[in-house]
Every structure is written in C-alpha cells, then in structure tokens.
Amino acid sequence: MMAKPLVVVIPHQLGRAEARRRLENGIGQAREMLQKAGLSMADATWSGDRLSFLVGAMNQRVDGDIDVEDDAVRVEVRMPLLLSLFAHKVQQIVSQNGTKLLTKQ
After folding, report:
1. pLDDT averaged over every residue in the chain
2. pLDDT by residue (tens digit) across 28-69?
3. Cβ contact 95:10 at 8 Å
4. 73-87 burial by CB neighbour count: b if 16+ within 10 A, else e?
5. Angular region, 50: left φ>0, alpha ψ -120 to 50, beta rest
6. 73 phi, psi to nearest 5 deg
7. CB-based contact 57:37 (threshold 8 Å)
8. What is the arithmetic mean of pLDDT over 76-81?
C-alpha cells in the first residue's frame, strides 16, 4: 500500500535549461549521498524535462519524478506506507539539497 505522494517545490531563477543542467550534473552526487546512507538509486532516466528515479531502501521501493519548470523544480516521491513515517525527514533533505544545487554557482 502506498502513502500519499510527498511533493516538494523548489523555486529557482535559473530558467529551465540551466536548472536541468545543474540537476544532470548533480545526479552523481545524489547517488553517492544515497549510497552513504545505505540506499541505492537503481534508475534515473530523463524524458523531456522530467527525471524519473527509483531508490531502494530497507527492502522497499521508492520512486518519483523531478519536473523541471521555468521557475521551479517539482519533486514528487511515492513511497510505501512503512517508509512514509520518514516523509518529513525526506522532505527536509530534498528541500535543503535541492535548494543548494539550484543556488550554488
């Protein structure tokens, strides 16, 4: 059973192309960060301006999409009910790291 999706919207002033470029460059860092936390990122595939991903955690699957827009990045994470207990923490991490990625030079 799936919990309600977790959605984080991260505003930016980069324009769509630059925001996407930074996300593409940041995927490697995201994989490393997840591995250090004992998680694995199986798939990360682009389709237009949407990045779809799949992460494994505690024998559970978490999948989601990142939509790059002109003035914001919208992250939607779908997680099993068991992992939804950690939704607040996941929301904080996504928001903090996404903002860093989209604001650093």
Report:
1. 85
2. 887 887 777 777 887 789 999 999 998 887 677 888 999 999
3. yes
4. bebbbebeeebbeee
5. beta
6. -120, 130
7. no
8. 86
The secondary structure of 35-102 as a DSSP string is HHTT-EEEEEEEETTEEEEEEEETTEEEEEEEEE-SSEEEEEEE-BTTGGGGHHHHHHHHHHHHHHHH
| Residue with more model confidence, 48 or 103 | 48
User: What's the one-letter identity of residue 45?
Assistant: T
- Burial category of 35 from C-beta neighbours within 10 Å (exposed 0-12, middle 13-18, buried 19 and up): exposed
Q: Report pLDDT for 52.
A: 94
Nearest CA to 42 out of 30, 22, 50 is that of: 30
User: What tokens were used for 58?
Assistant: 């505690």
Tokens (6 digits) for 103: 């604001």
Measured CA distances, 46 to 14, 40, 63, 67 (Å): 19, 18, 14, 10
Position of tokens 């199986």? 42
